[in-house]
Amino acid sequence: MKGNFEFRTRKSNRSLWVIECIDPNCSWRLRASKIVPESTKFVIRKYVGVHSCSLLNRNANHHQATYVVIGEQVAPQYVGVEKGPGPKGVQTFARTELGAQISYYKAWRGRKHAHTLIRGSPEQSFHVLPSYFHMLEKLNPGTVTRIEVNGESRFKYLFLAFGVAIRGFRYMRKVVGIDGTFLKGQYRGVLLVATAQDDNGQCYPLAWGIVDSENEDAWSWFLTQLKEIIGDTDELALISDRAPSIKKAISTVFEKAHHGACAWHVAQNIKNKFKCADIMGSYWSAVNAYRCEDFTGYMIEISNRYPRVAEYLENEVGFEKWSRCHYPGLRYNITTTNMVESLNSMLVNARDFPYVALLDIIQEKMSKWWNDRRIVATAITTPLTPSRESELRPRFAQSNGWHTSQLNPITYHVKGGELEGVVDIFNKTCTCKEFDIDKLPCVHAVAAAHHAQVSVYNLVSSYYTKEYYLLAYGETIYPVGSQSQWDVPNEVVTRIVLPREVKEKKRGRPKTSRFPSVGEFRKRKNRCGKCGAYGHYKKKCNSQTGSTEGNPPTNVPS
Fold first, then answer.
1. C-beta separation of 177 from 522 below 8 A
2. Of 493, 495, 498, 491, nearest to 150 (Cα)?
């Protein structure tokens, strides 16, 4: 193929295969037959490897360069990576490595075939799913998996939570962000995720799910499974966007937990509905205010300039949903669902994988995170995690020179800075409210601890300690290994899970990018009017010879 010589099949049956050059006068030929009649393997019996035909018979558009052959050759480049070369990259590979000129469409089909060889087909993924979940549960004790099918045994929902993460959640702040992102494979669907935030401010994935769409039934099913592993207590906070399906599902499934709205999504809604981006400074100050007095001041600023925005925040959204100081439960310093969005971004290249291949990527990344963070936790030499130490140290320096007076054995009055504070070192509270909400000593509490000759680390929540951080990542998440090594009971192997029914595919290129969220704007790439390249304007173009597209020719004789 690399020499651009085509061949044709002269004879082919179950025991013999004979091919020769497309030129009947050429001496090149190959003859292969079975090793023994009952074997499936062929052996080359005769091969004449020299072409005696004319060079005119060479063809870069090789007849044998099918998408299957291209896919088999390029497949190794997709092993161990999420993205790999795109169709244009496959075209380049075929030209440089195989000497074949192929169309974009054939390159696209070859790439798709390579994906199937490496990651399996979407249909096969549904068939293997029960066995895959069985092996995850077997190798990772305490792992919870669920597969929901309809009356026709067609896939409906799945749920996965690793036992390591379930047990580690005991050492996490009880704030869980939930969100979904659409999948781009043949059977589409939506990937749901629930994640906490660890003591060092990093994502701590708790549960994953795949459903048909973000509707109330799907969210209710997912949250019911989530409730079984994390419980339902007054200490639990669930943070999400304001989608009606999520709101209703949370209120139905969780009776004790508190639901909070993502402040970023609320901000996007404000900008979209009221066109008032200039008020965002006051809005975010209100979001992050610890004291209700400060919050009221910022809301007055908003109300004076945009009364409708203030009314929307108070009546339609509700102060208790997005405001830190009005939230009825404990959400610490977590005001957005950024931790969930980070996970969605992490999987952007894997969202068109078959379901089992996608779950494999999730397991692989979580295994790496647990190992890397365990190494970090072991190397910590301070009582707190690095991010909390970096917050506390400046407060210790700032409190130097502040005047502190003792009011009773546990209460201290601290003067310094713009705001005085009364600190209760026993109940771990301060009138500035920062200590109460974040559970990390504020500047007043640091000054009070120094005056009382109490270690400031004794006032820190256990969630921020090195001990809890190490316990959260103390175990290992194991992969399932090669399918040939699986040991699965027959009743699991024979369980039928059929692919879900999907709507008839629309004509044209399938959409792979999501619709922007409400109020979300994407930057457009600037295209130069001189050279046609993206990323700069015509005035800043350094090209010496600009494009003449669309301009009349200047060298045509009259």
1. no
2. 498
